[in-house]
Every structure is written in structure tokens, then in C-alpha cells.
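Weekly puzzle thread! Below is a chain. First person to post its structure in C-alpha cell form gets bragging rights.
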Amino acid sequence: MQKYGETTLLKLLMPDSSSAMQHFKFILVCLIWTALIFALANPQMGEGVEKGKRKGIDIMFCLDVSNSMLAQDYNPNRLEAAKRALHLYIDKLKGDRIGIVVFAGSAFVQLPITSDYAAAKMFISNISTRIISTQGTDIATAIDKAAASMLPTGDLNAKNAANQPKTQKVIVVISDGEDHFTEAVDVAASVAKQGMIVYTIGVGNTLGEPIPVQTPSGHIDYKKDRDGNTVITRLNDQILREIAQAGKGSYIYANNAHVGLDLLFNELEKLEKIEIEETVFSRYESRYYIPLWIAFVLILLEFVLYNKKMFRFKWLGWLKGTSDSASTVVNKKKHRFNG
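Winning reply:
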């Protein structure tokens, strides 16, 4: 306001301007945006829990996150293609429980077995080659941890494993098969004796592909060995076939956008699904319309308010004028009556 003239003079020229009303309208706008953000977040309320029945199997995915999975013979690379395919696979599930083991030179359970598909998608989205610093492809440890995590005892060699619930248990290894350890076939045979089935999915091509790496300057180069030669990663489908055979499962070559998981889905649909009792949360109701209505009311209020003092007194003035008019009519009638 000072840029337009002297403040005192401007106040005289604009006696109805109200800075308090401007602040009030600004607060209304902030509240409107806050209410809209809450509406977009779609708050939900649960109406209790109930015990329900589910029919399904337990599936542990073992996903290779070694640097070789960055090869770009799939779009955009092997790892991202596998993650995208897992998202599509989860969308098809109805009663199965899933878990995730990530592995490279070592392995760990990233997501224990669960029926929470939204959580599974979130965990899959966060997977990258940086999640494990030790390089290599230790399929044996991955299978061992996947099998142990599906047993309530957490012990693959527990004597009472045969007394556990008879849910069908499946382990799915997604890798390019460049295994630097030799025990994978033996471990697959061991878990098969525990009643689990091991499937393998081969990602990559047998011709070989260089592994892209980002230089400190931000450019893309290719991984080199100690002699300065470009490292070529190839699909080792032979070891994956042997692992699947020892685990009494099947080997699937990932040759399309679904990375072979559509074929796996058809295979697993043939397995017997047993009904198991479990406690589930149910009947979640969306409450997005509550903050949305609040935002709507605040928008209307902000729209009808002006940055003027006179608005606050306009209705009072109108009422006062109406009252004065009514008093005048009454006085006239009294005057006539008295006359």
C-alpha cells in the first residue's frame, strides 16, 4: 500500500478496507487446502474385526537384486521389469499370502508372509540393487530363508514341521541364475522334503548384456573387470532348471512383459488351496466426503466475504434501515390515530 501513496491518505481514501478481513480470508484459504488434502488422503474407519475363512497358498518370492539385474535386455532393466510384473501378479491374488526375500551375495526376508497386498506392493516398490551391499547371487541362502520364514517355528529342520498347518507352500526364485554358490540345488531338494515346491523364473538372455553403471559425473558407463574388460552378464538357465527340478517345481523363462508370472499364476492355480481360519480386518468405510464438505462450505464462505469493513455492517445497516422504516410507519399510524 505504501507504494501507491501516503498511508494516512490512503486510509482516508479507502475507509472500508479491512486488513483483519484479509487475514481472515487467508486463513480460510489455508483451511480449504488442508481439508482438500485430507479428502484426497481418503481417511477410512474400520467397523471392527471378524474371523473369516480364506482359501489359498503361501508364496515366498526370492528376488535377485545383484548388479547383474541392472542389465537392460528388459525394459527398463531386469530388476524393474520383475518388480512391475510382481505388481501385476499381486493384482490377481484373492486368498493367497505372499512374502518377499531379496538376495545378492547375502539374503534377508524383506516382507514376512502376509495377506496385506498393499504392503507387499509398497515393499516391492522400494527394492533396489543398493538394498544389499554384498555382491553375488546366493540363491541357496535365499531359498533357505524363504522356507524358514514360512514355518511357524522359523526352523527349516524342525522335527515338528510335519505337524504344521497343511497350507501349500511355494517358493519362487526370480533371478538371472548367475549363482556364485553351489548349494542351491541341495537346499531346494531339502525344502522339497518339507513339502514345499520351488519354482524358478529366469530373467535375461543367454547371449549376454553389459551392466550399466553411473559414473560420478552422472554419465552412464559399463561395468569393467580388473583387466578393464566390459563385464557381460548372461542368463544361466541350466542352474535354474536344476533348482526347480530338485524343488519339484518348474522352470519358467521370462520372455514377456509379465516376466513369466502369468504362466506361474496358471501353474499355482492348479495347486490345492486349503481353507484356513484367520482374523482379518473388514468393512472399512471411506470418509473422504467429510473434509470435502468442510472444504465446500469454507469455499462458499470465502467467496461471499469481501476485504471491506462495510460488509460486516451491511446486514446490520439493512436491518437497522428496515427497523427505522417500520418505526416510521408505526409512528404515522399513531399520528393518524391521535388525529
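Puzzle host: Confirmed. Bonus trivia for everyone else. The radius of gyration is 34 Å.
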